[in-house]
Design brief:
The chain has about 190 residues and is an alpha+beta fold. The chain is about 20% helix and about 35% strand. The relative contact order is 0.21. The N terminus is likely disordered.
C-alpha cells in the first residue's frame, strides 16, 4: 500500500529539511493548513518542532492521502511522522490493524511490542492501536533508530487515521506524534 516508512527510515539516516522534489501523487503543499476534502480533516503546516514537508494522494478519487512532518530539534532528536487518512476496509478495525502490521513485517521490519493509545483528539483513552517497530535501513539494524505505528478506526467504520513515526535521539517521539495529531482539525465524527 504505502511503503513510505521504510524509505523514510532510511532517509532519516541523512535527514535534512530540504524541500521535496515533485513526484507522482504529490499535491501542492500550501502555506497554512491543508484540508482533505473527502474526510474534512485539516492537516496543520506546523506544530511545535514538526513542519509539514509534503502532501501525497494515493488514489484518483482523493480519498487516500498522507502528509509527512519532519523534526530536527536542538536537543538532537531528528525524526519524521507520516500521517495518513484513508477509507476503512470492509474487514473491520482488527483486520485493518493486521494489514498495517503486515506492511511493517512484509517490508522486512519487526513489531517489537503492542499497546493502545488515545484517539487522535486525545479524548478517548485506549481507542487506537499502537506498536513499537523496527524497520530495515539497508544494513544491520540500527539501535539508535526508533519507530512506531498507530492506527485509529473512526467510529462508524468509514475512515482510518494512521501514523508512522521514525526518530533518532533522546526524546520519546511518540508523545510529539500524538501532540501533532491533536493539532489537526478533526471533523465531529473523528473527535471521540
Amino acid at each position: 500500500m504505502k511503503s513510505i516508512l521504510i524509505a523514510a527510515a532510511a532517509a532519516l539516516l541523512t535527514l535534512t529539511a530540504t524541500p521535496a522534489m515533485a513526484q507522482a501523487g504529490e499535491q501542492a503543499n500550501p502555506a497554512g493548513p491543508w484540508k482533505h476534502n473527502a474526510s474534512g480533516v485539516s492537516f496543520p503546516q506546523l506544530n511545535g518542532k514538526l513542519s509539514r514537508d509534503k502532501v501525497n494522494q494515493y488514489d484518483t478519487a482523493g480519498n487516500d492521502v498522507s502528509s509527512t512532518y519532519f523534526r530536527d530539534g536542538a536537543d538532537g532528536t531528528r525524526g519524521l511522522v507520516a500521517v495518513y487518512v484513508y477509507p476503512a476496509t470492509s474487514g473491520g478495525c482488527a483486520a485493518d490493524w493486521s494489514a498495517v502490521k503486515n506492511e511493517v513485517t512484509g517490508g522486512g521490519g519487526a513489531i517489537l511490542s503492542e499497546d493502545r493509545f488515545t484517539s487522535p483528539s486525545g479524548r478517548t483513552a485506549s481507542a487506537a492501536y499502537h506498536a513499537s517497530a523496527r524497520f530495515p535501513t539497508g544494513g544491520e539494524p540500527d539501535p539508535t533508530l526508533k519507530s512506531s505505528i498507530y492506527l485509529y478506526c473512526v467510529p462508524g467504520g468509514k475512515w482510518l487515521v494512521k501514523y508512522y513515526a521514525t526518530w533518532r535521539g533522546p526524546a520519546n517521539f511518540d508523545g510529539e506524534a500524538m501532540t501533532l495529531l491533536k493539532a489537526f482539525t478533526w471533523p465531529d465524527g473523528f473527535n471521540r
